[in-house]
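Hi everyone,

Forwarding the result from last night's run.
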Amino acid sequence: MEHLSTIMRPIRYGILTQSGEKIISGDISEDTYYTQYILMTPKQVIENKLGVCWDQVEFERYYCLKNDIPHMTFFDRNNIWESHTFLVFKTEDNKLYWFENSWDKQRGIHGPFTSIKDIFKTIIKLTHYDDKSPLKFYKYGKPQYGCTCRQFMKFATKHLVYKEGGD
């Protein structure tokens, strides 16, 4: 997975719009995200050196599948900290690790963890999350490349696996 970190190091946070325009990090308005975003293929992520967490996790998934690395992908969402996706992988000795590339402050390989719940708790702590609204974690499989923001969120929020805070 260190090799994956090296491959992904040049990737910047941003989107490729439906018209092919590249928009970097702070320049992405909510309206643009909801109306112009499309989920890139792993090839597009590498070619454009660009992607939000959703896109980057799909490249990570692709890498893990090609290298027979057991993995799971998760989507978290609440009303304060909009959303995030991340990949968890398992080593041959059954240890769990959280792989992060798109969240600059947490970029790298974190772990080992004894459970998925421990990873969720770590992410909650790192986000300085307050529990006034629930933070929900969903496990999801491979989405359809080219889907819109709304289509991705609908797909990724089908299988709730953990909830923290709120009612």
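Residues 83 and 97 are 20 Å apart (CA to CA).

Cheers,
N.
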